[in-house]
Amino acid sequence: MKKVGNHTSFSRILLFCLAFSLSFSITSYAQDAAAPAPAADAAAAPADGAGDPAKGKELFNTLCAACHKLDAKSTGPALRGVADKHDRAWIYKWVQNSSAMIKAGDPVAVKLFAENNNAVMTPFPQLSTTDIDNIMAYTSEPAAVAPPKAAGAQGAGADASGGSMSNNLVLGALVVVLGVLIVMLVLVKRTLTRISSTNGVQVAKEPGISVWKAYAKNQFLVLVTVILLMLASSYFLYGYLMQVGVDQGYEPIQPIHFSHKIHAGDNGIDCKYCHSSARVSKTSGIPSLNVCMNCHKNISEFQGDKDSTYVDHSKEFYSSQIKELYNAVGWDATAQKYTGKQKPVKWVRVHNLPDFVYFNHSQHVSVAGVECQTCHGPVETMEVMRQHSPLTMGWCINCHRETDVKVEGNDYYKKIHDELAKKYGVVKLTAANMGGTECGKCHY
Questions:
Q1: Is residue 119 located within the same domain as residue 229?
Q2: pLDDT tens-digit series, residues 143-180
Q3: What is the pTM for the complete model shown?
Q4: Range of 377's domain?
């Protein structure tokens, strides 16, 4: 027999190269991961002088932020640098009891009162002079300067390129593995061919018939295929038709951007604070813009941190949407008063049941105690409101079949519950047991 060369040496070389590449990429990745992060800047020590800015910031956010801002006029004037505008002793008296100074005829107090639309400042007699010094120390801090955007973009690009290089190494290693497998298959084929030719073995090739001709001659396979195609077509056609009118996932863009993630999620505002009619009415209602102004009268720009996990847009974008609210309701943030010029907001409806379906929010929210998230999904995580549930008849019926009736504190329902529970032989009744699946409950 003719000798066949040793092909394992070539495979070993390729495998060795692959192992070396993988070890190099893993080492580089480990070094990148283990690289120490740059040391954070040391926290600034409290400024020397009259007060502690850190304590002053806490007091300002608790007592002053409802009516004052540092760099913009709100209900009261902007307070940055206020310590340089007035005498410190005068500020003590003003903060502790401004009304008394106005009644006494203090010229500075009377002028300040008139410049701010005669808005009466809440007295704070509980604040000591040290507390007021701390607040003034906070308001005397210079405004923070935003870092240049170019540097941030360059840093982001560097991080992205570093991540792409590591991904390229992994993809390159996979390509090398596939190349090694192909080479090995070619070498095995050549070896078998040489062995067969050396031993004089000839591979007989029988004339074959095409697959399609063989399939066409088999009537049983043709019949089975036709039946399968008809069943599959009927299944997909039924599924398509059943989705007509189902708007699950519908996520329209509203004329004024409203983030449920920020309001209901981060700030923890209860759904029924804005949609108050859901407790007593058939519909949940569209919140009036006056409800928005309960908070946004004093919040004219976005207060969150741009690096927060709940923020999907820039601070400028959120602040511009607050300005759109002001334009719609007719609020002059500079003069702190309504202009009387209002513009209607054409909100886009998200959830819409057919006209022949009756649904009462108060019956579900107040009587049954159903949470808003049961039907509307995790709205506290939605930046843009969308339809979470299919709102189909089958979906409603399944809920009625699985939800127990709430009878605590309701003697009327308790009496019916006890009678029907005895009739059906169950401990707890579902909404379906009490007629929740009857046609007339939702269609009449």
A1: no
A2: 876 555 554 444 444 444 455 567 888 888 899 999 99
A3: 0.57
A4: 260-391
